Amino acid sequence: MTDETTVEHVASLVHRARRVLVFTGAGVSTGSGIPDFRGPGGVWTRRAPVYYQDFMSSPEARLEYWEYVLEGHDAFHGAQPNAAHRAIVDLERLGKLDALVTQNIDGLHAEAGNSEGVTIELHGTRRFVECQSCGARSDPAPTIDDFRRTRTPPRCGCGGWLKPATVSFGQAMPENTLQAAFDAAALADLVMSVGSTLTVHPAAQVPLTAARAGAPYIVINRGETAHDDLADVRIDDDAVEVLPRIVKALRSL
Question: What is the pLDDT of residue 37?
């Protein structure tokens, strides 16, 4: 358990900052039952990812991809924001959160109450399905129900292939989304990475950009990260446990 001195030190850094950037990864959502993808026992240790080019060109790959979507649907659909998500909402309500940049695709930050104006979902979201031809987005539930019944990869009314509005392996990350994240990092005067191993690029470059510009860098993750040696404060702990304590200490300042 993180000692109170460290919690109070982080709270004081946040208190002094004016433009805080919070960067989140899977470790924020595992407490809500969302499976980790890259960690020990994660999804990608059991199932090879389907690359975007294969999804677009191969009927077999599309079927495999949608079987994976169906497999994970119940975990995503039933998940609720946890104390870490709510603590980040509190940071926004306290006027401390300038930007929330997340690798997560579960939409739990939005469900917890973080505003669209501060939230940047680098890898997209499973809250919608998106046509790969016309770009139309819609509620995923009817599409997933149809696939559960037919086991036929779904199409849009325009004829294009549907998939969750997430960035697949081999698919280009939207340039405007990535640019917005780097713009926020350039303005940040404190950056906090929570629940990420910081090994996925270019996402991991976002908090690093802020740190290299001189912003104090706080890294919170259970287990090692690629930025441990770069952090001004390194906390090896569960975000669900430690983030609410930081916010509580912040309120007392």
Answer: 58
Strands 124-131 and 162-166: antiparallel
List the catalytic residues. Answer: 123
Letter for the amino acid at 173?
M
- In this structure, what are the phi and psi dihedrals at residue 188, rounded to the nearest 5 degrees? -65, 140
Rounded mean pLDDT, 26-49: 73
Report CA-CA distances (Å) from 194 to 125, 132, 169, 217, 223. Answer: 19, 31, 23, 11, 11
Bond from prior residue into 142 cis (ω within 30 degrees of 0): no
DSSP for residue 28? G
Query: What domains are defined for the chain?
Result: 1-34+81-123+173-253 (3.40.50.1220), 37-78+124-166 (3.30.1600.10)
What percent of the chain clears pLDDT 90, i.e. is strictly above it? 88
Closest by CA to 87, choosing from 19, 31, 125, is 31
176 within 8 A of 135, measured Cβ to Cβ: no
Do the beta carbons of residue 129 and residue 162 sit within 8 Å?
yes
Q: Average pLDDT in the 139-165 region?
A: 96
- Dig out the tokens for 248 from the structure: 């509580």
Q: Is the dihedral angle over the CA atoms 166, 170, 174, 179 positive or is it negative?
A: positive
> pLDDT at position 90, please?
98
Is residue 41 over pLDDT 60? Answer: no
